[in-house]
């Protein structure tokens, strides 16, 4: 059974796809045909370099056209990535005996258990007893690591990068990220967008919050000086004025993207600053790291935002939490962007922050969680306990 | 690290492999040859790709892990499945045949 016959010639044939196994003869068997003898190929053996991968039909085009990679560090469980999706790879063993028969004209020589030559009518040969196959299951991209890598060294205005290897520490190119992060190209790009990362000099970077504030302040300052309406700032003017103030096109465009949307009008580009995103940035700045009384915070926030914009507490969903302490309401920063991305860890972090959540408070902190095949209701059932004191009362969610 | 899955054969002409599957470890039943199994040709719900691991820089330095590539060398869409108990043959058979696949009754 475990005859290990290494035959260089036969091995090469298998590699070329002309395995000399006669698979066609076996597959072509139908009622009434002549019998087909099956024997061990002279190269029958463990062939550990051959693996079987189970792939649904919709995955075949990507697999057969070289658009698929396997990603992960040696200590991680490997995932398979198409251009847009990530799949976990699980080896599933079988207790059945699965004899693999390669295609191609069967070779004359066959191996028999008694080591005598096969007879003339042997027309199919098996080269391996497959122990099982790899199954693919759609999975969420593993992006927690992306966030921690990109936070190692945020971009700071006026930074000077050296050229030697030590200075490249904490900097990652697209190729580096493809090797380190278990996500498809599409999901990786989405993840970089969610982190507001930008590619600077070939490295993907997050931008330091103080630097973002400086650039935003400068854009707003110039908008007053040059009478640019905040809903239609002329791109060319903004870029050239900001450049003369010492800010590169790249970083200014990044900030415009972060706080606004581009509008094309009469072959010119304008930027419309988004009230909510700009106000949120100012709220984070006003609040800092500590707790504030709501009234004090609102006062500080409203005085800081650009004129013409209106601050609204609703803008701070998923960023700021209110807390009633006696007669006073206090606020503190609690950003969804800092919470873990896997559902179990996310809910654990939420319930560490406060043991009870109302739906309207909880929803902004879990709406970005996406798990293939699981609805948000499914997540709630799995990780929370829902109580409703009376039919009219708001449901309360606690840890399960 | 990143392992590329390559395919030289192209989508339309990927060589098709076959599988003969026996329930249980029953390979030797054929060797004896006193038993007959009835099998059926089954189309796999999901095809199986035959991949081959290939090291592309075998003689690189010690510190670099070898670059590995996975090459698609075939596809399996059908298998001949023998899942029933073997039927004892009453008449004595010549013990020549190791395994004989009889045409499946359609």
TrEMBL record, chain A:
Coiled coil is among the record's keywords: no
- Source organism superkingdom: Eukaryota
Q: Which UniProt keywords are listed?
A: DNA replication
For whether the record's keyword set contains rRNA-binding, the answer is no
GO CC annotations? Answer: chromatin; chromosome, centromeric region; Ctf18 RFC-like complex
Gene Ontology annotations of biological process type: DNA replication; maintenance of mitotic sister chromatid cohesion
UniProt xrefs under PANTHER family: SISTER CHROMATID COHESION PROTEIN DCC1, SISTER CHROMATID COHESION PROTEIN DCC1-RELATED
The record's comment on protein family reads: Belongs to the DCC1 family.
Protein's UniProt name? Sister chromatid cohesion protein DCC1
Please tell me the species this chain comes from.
Miscanthus lutarioriparius
UniProtKB/TrEMBL annotation, chain B:
Record-level GO BP terms: mitotic sister chromatid cohesion
Q: Which GO terms describe its cellular component?
A: Ctf18 RFC-like complex
Top-rank lineage group of the source organism: Eukaryota
User: InterPro entries from the entry?
Assistant: Ctf8
What Pfam families does the annotation carry? Answer: Ctf8
* Name of the featured protein: Chromosome transmission fidelity protein 8
């Amino acid at each position: 059974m475990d005859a290990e016959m290494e035959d260089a010639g036969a091995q090469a044939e298998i590699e070329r796809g002309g395995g000399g196994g006669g698979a066609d003869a076996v597959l072509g068997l139908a009622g009434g045909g002549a019998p087909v003898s099956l024997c061990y190929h002279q190269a029958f053996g463990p062939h550990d370099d051959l693996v079987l991968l189970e792939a649904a039909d919709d995955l075949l085009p990507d697999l057969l056209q070289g658009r698929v990679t396997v990603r992960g560090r040696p200590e991680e469980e490997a995932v398979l990535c198409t251009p847009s999706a990530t799949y976990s790879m699980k080896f599933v063993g079988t207790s059945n005996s699965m004899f693999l028969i390669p295609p191609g004209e069967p070779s004359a020589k066959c191996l028999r258990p008694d080591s005598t030559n096969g007879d003339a009518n042997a027309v199919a040969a098996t080269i391996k007893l497959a122990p099982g196959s790899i199954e693919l299951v759609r999975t969420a991209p593993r992006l927690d690591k992306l966030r921690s890598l990109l936070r190692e060294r945020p971009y700071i205005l006026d930074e000077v990068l050296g050229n030697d290897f030590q200075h490249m520490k904490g900097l990652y190119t697209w190729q580096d990220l493809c090797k380190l992060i278990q996500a498809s190209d599409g999901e990786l790009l989405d993840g970089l967008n969610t982190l507001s990362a930008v590619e600077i000099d070939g490295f993907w970077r997050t931008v330091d919050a103080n630097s973002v504030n400086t650039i935003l302040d400068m854009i707003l300052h110039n908008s007053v000086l040059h009478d640019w309406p905040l809903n239609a700032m002329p791109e060319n003017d903004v870029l050239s004025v900001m450049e003369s103030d010492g800010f590169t096109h790249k970083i200014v465009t990044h900030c415009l993207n972060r706080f606004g949307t581009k509008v094309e009008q009469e072959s010119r580009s304008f930027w419309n600053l988004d009230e909510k995103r700009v106000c949120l940035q100012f709220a984070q700045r006003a609040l800092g790291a500590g707790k504030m009384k709501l009234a004090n915070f609102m006062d500080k926030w409203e005085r800081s935002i650009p004129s013409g914009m209106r601050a609204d507490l609703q803008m701070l969903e998923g960023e700021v939490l209110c807390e009633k302490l006696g007669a006073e309401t206090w606020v503190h920063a609690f950003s969804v962007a800092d919470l873990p991305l896997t559902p179990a860890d996310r809910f654990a972090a939420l319930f560490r922050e406060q043991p009870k959540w109302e739906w309207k408070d909880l929803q902004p902190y879990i709406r970005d969680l996406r798990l293939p095949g699981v609805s948000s209701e499914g997540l709630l059932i799995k990780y929370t306990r829902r109580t409703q004191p009376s039919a009219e009362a708001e449901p309360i969610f606690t840890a399960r | 690290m990143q392992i590329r899955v390559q395919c030289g054969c192209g989508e339309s002409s990927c060589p098709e492999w076959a599988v003969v599957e026996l329930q249980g470890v029953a390979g030797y039943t054929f060797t004896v040859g006193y038993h007959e199994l009835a099998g059926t040709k089954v189309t796999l719900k999901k095809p199986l790709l035959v991949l081959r691991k290939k090291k592309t820089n075998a003689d690189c330095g010690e510190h670099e892990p070898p670059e590995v590539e996975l090459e698609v060398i075939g596809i399996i869409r059908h298998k001949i499945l023998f899942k029933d108990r073997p039927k004892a043959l009453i008449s004595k058979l010549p013990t020549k045949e190791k395994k004989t696949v009889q045409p499946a009754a359609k």
